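dude i think i finally got it to work??
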Amino acid sequence: MDDAPARMTKITVEDGVAIIAMSDPATMNATSVQMCEEMRAALEAFAIDDAIRCIVITGDGRGFNSGANLSPSGPVGSGRDMGIRLEGVINPLLVALRDYPKPTIAAINGAAAGVGVGFALVCDLAVMAQSAFFLLAFRRVGLVPDGGSSWMLPRIIGKARTMELALLGERLPATQALEWGVVNRVVPDAELMSATLDLGRKLATGPKSLSFIRNMIWKAQEDGFIDALHTERILQREAGLTEDFAEGVAAFKEKRPAAFKGR
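look at this
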């Protein structure tokens, strides 16, 4: 008899785009140790797979991610130190996504609550279904925002709006998330994955420099102006040494579309 636990991620690949779907429909994909470990393993495998050039993070079923799994089997660690789960499993996954060597897209198909907000925001681009929403639900259970939302949200929407979302615990619907610049696009529910894959294919056929671009923009959030100029100089050198740069120049001179290989 096979006693192995059911998988909590679903992986599909299409046109160079790997889709990692968090999958625990009974909890609307609440974050657990197993889910995080499976996501980390998938990300590590795709990072060294030249055939994969873009990652999509989404949820299976009705929700994107409903936050941390608060059931007895869900938390990392034991007792009442709710920070153990962050330090041991969730935070390393968020850092892995932030520092990832390939572009990432969040396809937000339903509720993104609690740490689910962080999983959405840490991706480079975000496409949101019309019926989806964000919810910093921490106040409802006497906790504080995590998943990096306390760092990312003020930089996206400012202190006043972040305070409102965190202190009142009210929903941020898709249309307002778009207006506030939290997501890139809002589409009808039925078109979410097709719209996301359209973006994914554009990234998957782009040059190696897309990796440099996404990393330099993340780094610039913490650097001063002079530091940002230095990073641009260093990464411009790296980009200029790629095969894709040579192909881009040749295509420009020959007046044809470039055929980038991600190298």
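The longest helix spans residues 83-98.
im so relieved honestly
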